[in-house]
Structure prediction request, 382 residues.
Amino acid sequence: MPGYLDYARIGPLSRPAAAALAEVSALAGRLDPADLARLFALSDAALNSAAALLDARPHEITLAPSTSNGLFTVAAALPGSGTVLVPRGEFPANLYPWLRFAGRGGPAVRLVDPAGERHITPDLLRRHLTPDVTALAVSAVDSLTGHLAPLAALKEVLGPGRLLIVDAIQGLGSVPLEADAADVLVSGGQKWLRAGWGAALLLIRDRCAERLVPGLGGWAGVTDPFAPRHPAPSLAGAAAHLATNPDFSAAAALGAAIDDLAGQGGPAVVGGRIRAVLGELLDRARRAGAEVLLDGLGAQERGGIGAFRLPGHDPAAVHRALETGGVITTRRDEWIRLSPHASTPDDAADLLAEALRPFAHPTSHPATHSTSHSQEPACPTN
Prediction:
């Protein structure tokens, strides 16, 4: 669908991912010993592909059922003797794991108000670094503004003694990430990677592994799950945090999606195309008189997401008109969020312009907006 501009919500399953799902379904229909070994091999291959993407060792990565599950796994693994900083504007999936475990054996939580800005900066982080702070949890790309977090700069401020925990689902597959700065990184595959649901990457680097205990680690995370007596020693690396075996179908699809990304030139090439398409879409919105959220962001400061509003017009009516015109977006309160992919055709910009034409107030001086915005509605879809 040429006007599908909602990859930050759901990325339609790619052909390689769909083919992987079909292969695993065929194997599951037979399940002789060789087929069972093939299922495990596909899961291991996905971890190897992910390791190459994230510049990690394969044992530093395991599979969780979802981004949220992975973040809860990390929250359960952190000792309760410190404080986790979380920007107040974070997507709720990166808030509730820390809130739920605070007071239940996990660290305390301090919400950082970015003082008029949605995102946290190195200077702001530095001002909040009290001795009790042990970690910062942050999204690689903000789910509404598209701001790309300066992960390396944030990690430099944190230093080696504090953890940088990254929810990467809105960045992985859409733009290059400074993934080597992340001590812990979690990302599902149902958005930019177009891998569907059921598997998420959980990266725990060796440099911090000993600081996380396997709070949710179950039988699949120990060296001898069939030992006559338990508990058994935990596995080395991120696998210690496995509760059970992964969803083999989802793992295979995720691995195929990562391989497909690499085959297209990797995040640099794919991300460059996404940014170019998004830039054209936002330009068309500006020509219609739209105000772009955080319009002052430089090209390298934005991921694959941009949001706009049309002053004086009901955002619900604008959203409906876009959908009627074949342009699929997400509405967050007064903002319309655009999130194209590398495969988005050039005529998507024409569709957007045509759908906005009834609301247009052309201007040669686009408005900017870089201050706070309304809170996201309940139960958003990221």
